[in-house]
Amino acid sequence: MLKAIFLAIFDVNEGPKVLHQVPTSSITASPSTPSIPLLHFPPIANTLIPHPTLCNNGLLQLTIAHHRILSYPQCISSPFYPRNAYTFNFCLVLAEDADFSSYIFVVRKLNTLFRTLEEQSQYLSKDDSKPDTGKIYALCEILLEDLNNYSEAMIPIDDSNTLNIKLFPTYHPPPPLYAHHVPLSTVRLEDLVDENWDLTMLRILPHINGINSVKQISLLADADFKLVKKAIRHLLYYGCVLLLDVFSFSAIYACTAEISEFVESEETQEECARYVAPREDNAAFALPKGDEGEMFSGTELAELYLSLRQGLSVRNWCYDHEDVVSKIDLRRFITFGVIKGFLYRVHKYAFVTPKKRRKLAKDELQNELRKPKVNVPKDEEPDRKLEKYLDGTHCFDEICTDLMISEKELNQRLKAWGDVQIICR
Amino acid sequence: MSSQPLPPNPCLVAILLIVKTTDEPFVAFHYPPRPGEDNSRFKGIFRDNGEESTSSSDNESQDSGAEAPEPSRKEVVQKGDSPPDIDETGSASPEKNGGLFQNWSQQRWNDLFGYQSSLLARLLCPASSCHKKRFEVGLNDNVFIGWPVFARPEGTWKKVQKPRRSSSRSKPTAEKANRRSKELGASRVQNTSGTDENSDTPRPAVAVESQSEMDQDWEVQDERETLSSANKTKLRGINKPSDASTTVLKEERPLVMFNIVFVLKPPPLEYHLRVKEMYDNVVKKLGKALRWEQMRSSFVAKESALILSLTETMDSPGSANPSLSTLYYDLVSQSSLAKGISTLYNSIASSRIAHVSLTPSSSLSLQIPIGSSISVLPTPLEPQLPGLWLTTANSMPTDDDAQTSQLGSHFTLLLLSDVHLILSDINAAASPIAKPLSHFLRVTSPWKSFYQISQSSGIPLSDIQFLASHLIYWRRARAIPPLHHRDIYIVSPNADMRKLASATSAFAKAFPALPPLPKLLSLLSSTPRPYVNLMPSKDHKPAYMDILAWLMRENWVTQLRTFAWVRVPSQIKEAVSKHPASNSFDKSPQNTAVDDSDDASTSSLGVPDSISSSRLSVPLSNPASPTSSTYTTLPFTQTTSQSPSLISNPRLASALASRYLSAISKHILETQGEESQSAWDKCVKHFDGKHAIETIPVREGWKRKRVALLLTGWEELGVLVRGRHW
Predict the structure, then answer these.
(1) One Pfam family, short name please (chain A) (predicted)?
(2) Taking the model in full, what pTM does it have?
(3) How far apart are CA B141 and CA B36, in angstroms?
(4) Chain A closest CA to B318's CA: distance in Å?
């Protein structure tokens, strides 16, 4: 929220001074209005109207009296002006602890636009309206109102110039995306589509369903993997997708500390009961109350979630709960827990000591040198392709997705390596 | 996401010392030598200054590449090539520097971030109304934070009680320091070994080596001088008077203000967090310490005069300028303030604790505290914090009567480095609590709680907690629930797998006779089971407990703790609804509804809020003696409309939940006997999903086996649900 906008200039007679301020008397007190200024201007006057070197040099911000002033000092040197230079600075005043990143653009735009206007037509220096009157004051007034009320402003300045400003929020950079991540949309992406959307994006949209991994999406959509990754990172940036893991029956899931929140929240339990109900009687979605007999109670669901643990694959869990499995959508049951954060996937990692890896590499080299033509049966030979994945930093999902093999096959290939330690984390 | 802890990131770019005497303020010292630019060619200098150990070969090789300010001069000239006057769009983007740089073909040693040092100093010297206040100015992405300190209005630093002494004393000492440093400087120019004369830690051999290195450097410098001296003198700056007389004057003038300014480059979204962290933990504390030293012995005045005397030749055109690396070597070895600032920068920028000794008698330690644990596992969408301890033991209530949950009597200390190392550090620091601290360190053990340590060693519990918090704050230790061989440990889901290879070799060094680390982690990966099952035999127990402490310290494992909730089986509900209490509201149909969702409607009716009182009151209001037989005879297969439910907080149970609880208690009495019932009544308050079951034996003083048996019994009865997490 903007507290004030003011224009400070270097007056040849008076030195740095505030020319226009919105609201009136927010920066310097005037005898006509009784309000107390937000801050004391004289100590910061020389900072806001600085030495020419610091002008035209980008953002200059400072804090004073629990306020933050964003400014972008401009200095135009020309023999036209007295003292051969004209220095001005449109400043925005915000609360000290307010998020100001979106206003940096505003202050830059404001100052550079007026610099251009000044250079073209001496728009500022020729304007001899009294302080807090005139067109520049009016512009500041509209800008403050519009930005605070609508977060955007479109103010015509003259026949050929308009000030267009909009506040854009800053988001975190998207997290790293891997081939084995499974995107799940949080909004109806197809409703957002318009003709300007990227082609790759349009191709991959139908395949983002919480089941396909990024790699699978690129294969299904027949799109370049790098472009798919870029498109999904784009969706991630705007918070339109979540990232899950590849669901499989050999995967292991266990509870996180947030499980106690699920146990205590009936709302979440009801949501879960609706979500995990089998897909064929989709009527349950429309009439959740009518079908109550078929649905699980929150307590039952909580107990089911609590029975998932480290070292127990989904397959083995199903053997223990055969009666339940037929009544729920198992994938959604797991996914719900992962989305809400009270379940986590226990990833598997394979580790072979670097010494052994090196030794194998050496052996192979020697073998090749000695008898290049003789082929050892493939099953017996440790898989060279796997080598780079065996340093303990690549989870099984990643290896399987990259090599496009099943976990079963991976386990078999790992056997050839002999002394592989599998770590579940 | 905002509640998520972020990985430590000090964003520190540089530290500047701004000093103002009666005339213009100036940048007296800055570190690193070339902040905000490509510093790779100065790497050697950083290393030398930071660890203040120079190896001559290192320095020589660096110096040829260092070329002091020359390359950056070129850079700036290139940058300044596009003055804004040419810029037709009128957009002065941050990349384009001011056009006035064109007039500055030579950049001075203390011109920073492309700004003239005198301008920067003026910008960073606020009005005196900012005395002892937070000072913050931003230039593009860099933000300058300081805590300016001004002299008293009468120009002195000491309190009014002894104004004469302070003013009369500060001057001669400053002068003396000056004279001494000048002598030093002179001797250096004459190529006598001058560097080790005043250095804090004399290393004669090194000094001689560096001497020869300096000679070489000057030769290079001289060549450069002859080439460009004409240019330099012609285009000499206007602002800083370079002749010696004014400099001397400046030094003799009393110090009016100083401001240690920290330059940060925080990411836009973390701006407030990072700036606040730095200001609260480092900037303000350092400012206070320096102000105190200045008041005591005009430390800052002396040091800045000393620094100035060493740097005054840097920008004078005629004389031979030492290279930047030589200058910094001299500064750091002669001025304790310069050394302090460089140490501070090197430590804080790498998120370590900075130990700064300003004067021989005073030192201070500064750090930006970092979290030792997280309770929530980051999702792929959130910033990852691999290698941080994952637990809820610190964030959830563990002891209701303990003021600080982390240091409750049932916790203990896990030392993060070797105890001998900590002991030697403590003895070296000569802190007033060194003696009790080393005594405590000798008796502490990660498998004994504070309470047990206190009992066995005789140190009062409050002292232990104080010493423990001291060790924790200074990153020497961490508070953990005591390690126990019967507890369950799993590979931490937040373990840093990237460190596996290096940790494996470190582990092999620490425990050579035992299985390698990956093997152990693999063993810990299967179905969760007590740690004791991993041990091949009883004789291995001490070694395996040491391993556990190691694994815990390096955050490879975390304890899997058990949490429980009271489950109300349907037959209990049935029985309660069949025999309603005399209270009229209990008969209302809503109470036959599933569970304690009606908390809101009933809890307002003055329900007793503690479990003990509810146990007393509910049976009284529930005079149904025949119920006792009903409970046991209830056929388990009977289908009821009432499904079982969980009571989330037995301590603050609603009226209905309280009746369920008392019914369960009776049910236990009838099925499992009196002992089980009394145990249930004692334990039920822990069954809220927030108190770990592992703490029950310690709290109640029972054997672990007994608790395990009881819990299994209750679980079989269907009145308890268990879940495990960290």
Answers:
(1) NPR2
(2) 0.74
(3) 11
(4) 27
